Every structure is written in structure tokens, then in C-alpha cells.
Amino acid sequence: MGWIVAGSLVTGVLAALSLAFAPFIPATESGVTGGILLGLGLGWAMLAALSVRFTDQPQKWAAAPALFMGLGGFLLVVFGSPTQEVLAWLWPPALLVLAVWMIARTRRLLRSRSGRVLLYPVIALLVLASLGGGFETVRKTPDAEASPVQGQLVDVGGHRLYLDCTGSGSPTVVLEPGAGLMSSDLAWIAPAVARDTRVCVYDRAGRGWSDPANRVQDGAQTAADLHTLLRRANVPGPYVLAGHSFGGLYALTFAARYPEDVAGLVLLDSTAPASDPESARGTNADSEDTMERASALVSAAGRLGLAWLLGVTPGHLKSTVDEYISAGSSAQQAAELRNFTDKPLVVLTAGTGSQPGWAASQEALASLSTNSLHRIIDGSTHMSLIDDPEDAAAAARGILDVVWAVRTASPPAP
Fold it and tell me: What is the pTM of this model?
């Protein structure tokens, strides 16, 4: 009996992973989740069938979770997101009741000690999944209905992005936070810049107040969304773009694709673009499909409470994973900016904690313009440039140096 339990559980897990990445299963969160449920349902069905056929301890109750998961998986695969939104409310309490019932049936009908040792942790995981799923469903509801206290939500084509502009004067500074971060993470820099000119912060798709997007959010799409956001919000350009870390890639891509809208650049310990953007063009379709499915898996895990443990929303978790999945494409797209002519450019580099080769990449960024300045902030780290008051003040000064250079048509002050 113990071997049948073990074999059924292993079969269910392997079937779930296989179906999650099967080509006939849609590469969406609902599709991948449905494939996983179908695979797990198969495992429970095996336990019911094999225990009846080969042992004197028939576990017919296992047909209930097999039917529960199989039906849910089928509905998700066939009908997609609409079904997922309904099941998000129905599935957690139903699963909790089912799990409690499964424990009672196991204690009564399964005499195999090894079988119980294997099944109890699995059922405990189902209980945790039901509690986590219910919590996430309830937690996100107020956020979906609420409006930001300040700033605005602007439709950029299929989803809305949050934008908050403060201060007055020109040129307008647009801040790009790093990977996985959002507008609130720039709370030390934005007010300091707003004392001298207008500054706008925004949340990329899926995080903060912004809606998730149904398109791949690589550097090109991020730049296109930002361009649409600023235009529809009536924020006049040309802008000074300031990007921290991974946000520097988006600032570079924006400058390459919309040069008439960019008056200056500030790169805050920016990630370096690809050295050879031509070498990896045309991402393999199979690789893209695999990455989309991996992202969907993470998003599904976020709905079961993983996002709460990390202190973010499921949408934020998925958008961050997508951001890193698209890192190669974003680095290639940023490399399209090969000449910033004589527009003001300031490169600020953290003074400590850099990896080998980082300093050289920062020098290369500074060479994009004939009107540039490379400044190393002594004692600062990659993150302290935005989250330490003193180092963030130095970052704000660098941004304002470019603002001054744009206004006066002169080089940035050393």
C-alpha cells in the first residue's frame, strides 16, 4: 500500500509538471494552473484505482480529490481567465472542506503507516493552499476597487499605469525605478528633485497601483508604454530620464526609440546594455513559450500565498519574474542607443560593492555623449543611492545637474 501511495503521488507531480509545459495547454496562468490540476487529479485517481485493484485497503475516497482537481483543471484549460476569477472565490473554501474530509477518510480507511506518513503532509499542503488562496483573493479585492490618494491611472492600451507628477518647471524629470521596484521606492529622490523642477514617477505594469499587462514587458514595450503614458497624461517633453539599476536600460531604450522626446539622461548605477545586441536577435519560440509558462507558474504560486510571504502582490511578483525573464531582450534593446550626441548625460556610480567589470561598463555608458559626466558617489552602494537619505540626495543633485545643463545649454557641472 505504501508503494501505491508513493507511486500515485509521484505520478501526479510528474503529470502536473508535464501538462504545465505541454504544447496543447495554453501558456497562460489559467492554462498552466489547469494543466497542473489535471496532472494532480490523475495522481489521486491512480491511488483510488490501484488501491481497489491490488490491496485490501481500498481508498475509494481518493476519487473525490481526483474529480475536484480534474474538473477544475478542465474548466481552467477550456475557459481560461473568466473561470479562474470565479474559482478564486469558490476553490479555497471547497478545498479546505475537502482536505479535512480527506484526513478523516485516511485515518479511518488507510491502515498502512507508510501510506499515512506520505499522505498527511500532502493534505496539509492542500490546507495551506486553501488558506493562502483565500487570503490572497480577499486581500486583493480592496486594492482593485481603491483609487490612489495622489496621482492618476492612465489607460495606455489594455491596461492602466499609475503616474504621479509633482513640482513645477521644465524640463520634466521622469524617474525609472530598478527591477522589481516601484514609484514609492524613489520617495527620497522625487521630493528633492520636485523642489527645482517637475518630476514624474510611475509604476510599471503589474506593480504598485498599475494594472498587469497581457504583453511581454521587455525594454521596448516598457518604453512604448511610458511614451503613451506621458502623452495621454499631457506631460510635455522633452524629458530628462533618470533610471536606477535596471531602470537605466528602460531609459536608454526610450532615448533610442524616441530621441526627440529626450533632453537628457541620468543613469544611477545602471545595468549595462548588451555588448553585442545583434548576436541574439530573434528569440527562439520554444524558449519564449517555456519562459511564459515559468512566469505563469510563479503567478499561480503567488495566488496561494507566496506573494504575501514576500510582502508583495501576486501581480507584483509575476511582473518582477517577467522582468528578469526578459532581461536579455531588454539589455539588447538598450544597446540600440549608440550615440546620445551632445545631449547632457550624467552617470552616477556606487562607490562600494560593485562587481568586477562594473566600473568599465559605467565608463562605457558615459562615453555615449560628448556632453557627459561620470561621478562616483563615495561610500554609496547600489541600493543606498535610492534608499539612504544622504546618498539619495547625491543622486538628486546629479539629476538636477542635467536639468540645469538642459536649461542653460551647457555641460553638467563637475
Answer: 0.80
